[in-house]
Amino acid sequence: MADHLDAPGLTSPAMDARVDITDHYAFQQPGHPERTVLAFNVNPLAPTHADEFRHDALYETLVDTNGDAKPDITFRYRFSRKERGRQFARVSRAQIDGELEDGHVHEEFEIEELVEHAPVSFDSRARITKGEDDVRFFAGIRSDPFFFDLLGFLNGLKFTGSDFFIDKNVFSVVLEIPNRLLGANPKVGLWTRTLVPMTLQPDHLTQVDQMGRPAINTVFNHSNDKNTFNITQPVDQRGAKTLSGQTFLDVFTSELEALGGYTMPQAEGIAKILLPDILTFDYSSSAGFLNGRQLQNDVIDISLNLVTNGKITGDGVGAHTDYLGAMPYLGKPHA
After folding, report:
1. Is the pLDDT confidence value at 107 over 80?
2. What pTM, to 2 d.p., does this model score?
3. For residues 161 and 172, what is the distance between their CA atoms, to the nearest angstrom?
4. Cβ contacts of residue 222 below 8 Å, gap of 6+?
5. What pLDDT digit, counting tens, does each position of 38-51 carry?
6. Which band of pLDDT confidence, cut at 50, 70 and 90, is reported for residue 110?
7. Is residue 243 domain-resident?
8. What is the domain extent for residue 93?
């Protein structure tokens, strides 16, 4: 999987599908190289486990503009309580001045409200909201764009070409923005995260899930290390300790040696590319993964080829055919 159900035992982080990140994407808006599309999906198997966005959670896309694995810009998505079948979204952009402490932004400045009171789409109709600073926004249920032979993966990488996600849905937020909102440097790093109120401190939000590149946490980490990875900030990921006492860099190196037969120096070199787990994106380029990620990019084949050192070149599953050429880009939800 990309990041679906990436807590131990194929469960959702915080045991809440509403804040379980499945995928995120970044690509040039088709026909408009001066604009970028950011898509952020949660809630695997929607609406089976949840039929709304969590109203007291924070959904974020974080942007590193200078390559230090620390966020400089954040796009924040918040939702109202769902009432009488209706829910509304608010989107803001903030410059970050300070550190992420316990997953929380300690300081910030220059907060810009981009979208107010945008209706969430709970059916096949895509309600697009125009916001400030030339942005457009969508939130709601859509067809899951991810494609993968999940059952083959769980069966020891014995793939049959069966796409588990062909008829599944997710909840998605999609933001079209002018490139300048990502900063002056076109080469940025992106990751997404979700935060929820702490049990005994409901006014304090704590991070429960995050995602940079696809399939990192689901492939390389095991047991409760998955939860630890989800709350460890990218800048700290190489040196953070797992339950075994190893660092995540050590674990990734060992996994690459075992899966691909790499030498230790080779495996460590690849592990240092994968960590920190940040999606690199040059918004001046229309190329896809590893430059950002487009809906149709076969990230699983690329990843399988890398981690197995060419022993497995793919899962036999191809891109879906329901993607759209304009907002909200993800296909209509399945009934």
Report:
1. no
2. 0.95
3. 26
4. none
5. 999 999 999 999 99
6. confident
7. no
8. 13-213+279-286
Q: Please list, in sequence order, all residues whose beta carbon lies within 8 angstroms of the beta carbon of residue 264, skipping any fewer than 6 positions away.
A: 253, 257
Tell me, rounded to whole angstroms, the distance of Cα 260 from its chain centroid. 26
From 16, 84, 66, 86, select the one nearest 44 (Cα to Cα): 16
In a domain, 222, yes or no: no
HEC string for the chain: CCCCCCECCCECHHHCHHHCEEEEEEEEECCEEEEEEEEEEECCCCCCCCCCCCCCCEEEEEEECCCCCCCCEEEEEEECCCECCECEEEEEEEECCCCEECCEECCCEEEEEEEEEEECECCCCCCCEECHHHCEEEEEEEECCCCCCHHHHHCCCCCCCCCCCCCCEEEEEEEEEEHHHHCCCCEEEEEEEEEEECCCCCCCEEEEEEECCCCHHHHHCCCCHHHHHHHCCHHHCCCCECCCCCEHHHHHHHHHHHHHCCCHHHHHHHHHHHCCCCEEEECCCCCCCCCCECCCCCHHHHHHHHHCCCCCCCCCCCCCCCCCCCCCCCCCCCC
Q: Tokens for 162?
A: 């069966």
Number of domains composing the chain: 1
Dihedral pair phi/psi, residue 151, rounded to 5°: -65, -35
Residue 254 within any structural domain of the chain: no
